[in-house]
Amino acid sequence: MPKLKTKKSLAKKVKITKSGKIMRSHQLRSGHLRRNKSKRALRRHAVPVRMSKTMEKKMRRLLGV
Question: What is the per-residue pLDDT across 11-45, written as a single tens digit (0 to 9) for each?
């Protein structure tokens, strides 16, 4: 059986906590046209959020965790 390769594009976008949760950032936080977005919204979306449980299962497979 061949080894699973880590999906590098996903590995750069998510962070795995010590307890095993997968955290993702918000799309709004990305750099494109940030000056048009409200500062309040940018601050609110700066905090990483936990990925939904259904997506988390799929992401674990892609990450090889």
Answer: 999 999 999 999 999 888 777 888 899 999 999 99
24: phi > 0 → left, psi -120 to 50 → alpha, else beta; which? beta
Q: How many domains, in total, are found in the chain? A: 1
Q: Using CA atoms, how far apart are residues 38 and 60, in angstroms rounded to an integer? A: 34
**Domain of residue 57, residue span:** 8-63
Is residue 4 predicted with pLDDT exceeding 90?
no
Q: 33 lies in a domain?
A: yes
Which tokens in the block code for residue 52?
Answer: 């939904």
